Structures are given as C-alpha cells and as structure tokens.
Amino acid sequence: MEKQSQPCILINIISKVRIQLVQAIGRGEHPHLPQVSQNFDTIYIGWKRPHGDWVKLNCDGAYKESVDIAGCGGLIRDSNGQWLKGYVRKIGTCDALYAEMWGMYEGLRMARRQGFSQLVVESDSKLLVDMLTKNCKINGVVPVLIRRIRDLIELPGEVQINHTLREGNRSADWLAAYSLTQDSFVPIVLEVPPREL
C-alpha cells in the first residue's frame, strides 16, 4: 500500500471535519453556536380581526414618483371582518410619509363621523405609528397633520394605534394605489368594496 503525502492527508482531514461541521450546524449542535431548536413556530402574517365590539381602520398612503402624485386610502371592518366603510383620496404632491399621514387622518375623520368609539387603527408606516405613540422624538415643529390626528385620537372613546406589516394592510394598500387613478382630489367614501378588491 502506498503511503499518502502529508498535504493529501491534511486535505482529507479538513474535508471530513468540514462535512461533520456542516452536519452539526444543520442539527444545531455546533459547540461555538448557541443551541438552535429545530422546532419552528408558524407566525400568521395577515389581517387580524378586532375583538368584541371594536372596529378596525386600516389606512395607507401611496406615492408615485414618476408623476409626482400621492394619494391615500383605507377601510373600516368590524370584528367579523365585514366591510363597514372605505375611502380614497388623491392628494397631490407630497412625500410618502405625508401620504401615510393623510391616509390616517382621513380614516380617523370618517370613523369619528360614523360614531365608532372603540377603534383599532393600523398602519404599515412604523415611523408614523412611532410619531403618534411618541416612541420617537419629533424635532422642531410637529406637523399639522400629526396634531390633527392626535386631536381625533383624543376625542371620547378608545383608540389604539398599531403598526402592522404590509401583508396585514393589503386592502388599504390597494385602496391607496387606487386613489392615484381618481380624477378628483375630493375624498371619496366607499359604501361597498370595489369589485377588484
């Protein structure tokens, strides 16, 4: 039997160690890594119903850079997931954050006019939610729309402001994009959902 040279033995050892290391990492057993459980939880990402007599407002803004136009939209659903009201509004020229603010402002105004006193408000704009819940400091003058939204929140009743992932805000996202196709800049209240939605 022919004797292997030192480099060949070393390469064989490295290859075996590498294979063992990859297998150990796959099992979560590597000594230099924290132990990883192979049990994975399934996380539901989507729209979740409000509890009891609460209703939920999902709102969103849209900005189309190619034509420098913004809009917003949203909808209110009950605890059975039934459409109560929706809205779209073409805004004009503003940035994406202001479009998000307009979306929440228009939705809260509509909800308050309808007399909903237990309201969950969801937006996929983390920055907007943080501005309203005071989880981030606003330097300088507080934007007028933020002050108006806070005024609507402080009216009698209970309002919860929550961040949701984009997947939980799909209908509002669709309505916001739909607002950009409107001819008028006047808010449009939708008593029934559009067929495409």
Describe the structure.
Helices cover about 35% and strands about 20% of the residues. The chain is an alpha/beta fold and about 200 residues long. It has 2 domains: about 1-40, no CATH class; about 55-190, Nucleotidyltransferase, domain 5 (2-Layer Sandwich). It has a 6-stranded mixed β-sheet with strand order 5-4-1-2-3-6, sandwiched between helices. The longest helix has 21 residues, at about 5-25. The chain is elongated and about 75 Å long. The chain starts with 5 loop residues before the first helix and ends in a 7-residue tail after the last strand. The mean pLDDT is about 90.
Quick summary:
The chain is α/β, with parallel strands linked by helices. The protein has helices spanning 6-26, 96-114, 126-132, 144-153, 170-179, and strands at 55-64, 69-77, 83-92, 118-123, 158-163, 188-190. It has 2 domains: 1-40, no CATH class; 55-190, Ribonuclease H-like superfamily/Ribonuclease H (Nucleotidyltransferase, domain 5), CATH 3.30.420.10.
Question: In terms of topology, how is this protein built?
Answer:
Layout (H helix, E strand, L loop, with lengths): L5 H21 L28 E10 L4 E9 L5 E10 L3 H19 L3 E6 L2 H7 L11 H10 L4 E6 L6 H10 L8 E3 L7
Parallel strand pairs: 1-4, 4-5
Antiparallel strand pairs: 1-2, 2-3, 3-6
